[in-house]
Amino acid sequence: MNKFSENPREVILAGAKEIALEQGISAINIRAVASRCKISVGTVYNSFSTKSELVVAVVEDFWREAFNDFHKCLKGEKNIFEKIELLYNNLFVYLGKFQENWIEQLSLLSSTGKSLGRKREYEFFEKVRKSIVNLLDSEDIISDETWTDNLTKEKMAKFIFSNMLAMLKAREEDITFFMDALKRIIYLK
Predict the structure, then answer these.
(1) Using an 8 Å Cβ cutoff, are 94 and 160 in contact?
(2) How far apart are CA 133 and CA 156, in angstroms?
(3) pLDDT digits over 38-88, tens only?
(4) Cα separations in angstroms, 120 against 34, 54, 58, 127
């Protein structure tokens, strides 16, 4: 049995991802994907009923792949700051794979596609924030006195991830300032 007959949706998604990586996410359309996968347009529509659904699936798969490595960044003997820097560098590399600012290209989606994309993004980002909270909670080098009613682990995780996303969007390669500022905010034992 060939790969297509085993899982046509995955083969179609892989073809769409190739187009996004080579030409940008705005180049994804049903005909281009069908041509790339050497299948009929109808076969693509059997797995993805709209272009928006296909684009959202590509973006969702991208984030899933990027954050699979996220858990690897959280493991090991490194301290929290080294882990955060590893996470940032990992995301920087993944975003660098795209030839265009694909986040802006998502504005081309239908309103339903945008809503679905935002929902998926929110769910994914919540998992990341919760993982950062767990990381903050498990670090022995952070004094319990660091946390107050206003400076909570949850707010710190949101602060860390929001700043990471802003730096990624700006394509900041050097995050030394951010890491130094973070170390000053979270004082060590």
Answers:
(1) no
(2) 8
(3) 999 999 999 999 888 898 888 888 877 777 777 777 777 888 888 899 889
(4) 25, 13, 12, 11
Domains 1-49 and 52-185 in one fold? no
Residue pLDDT, tens place only, 119-141: 777 888 888 899 899 889 888 88
H-helix or E-strand spanning residue 189: none
CATH topology of domain 52-185: Tetracycline Repressor; domain 2 (1.10.357)
CA distance linking residue 187 with residue 183, whole number of Å: 6
Q: How far apart are CA 38 and CA 12, in angstroms?
A: 10
Range list of H helices, the chain: 3-6, 8-23, 30-37, 41-47, 51-74, 80-96, 102-105, 111-138, 153-169, 176-185
Query: What is the distance between the alpha carbons of residues 176 and 113, in angstroms, rounded to a whole number?
Result: 37
How far the first Cα of the chain sits from its last, in Å, is 59
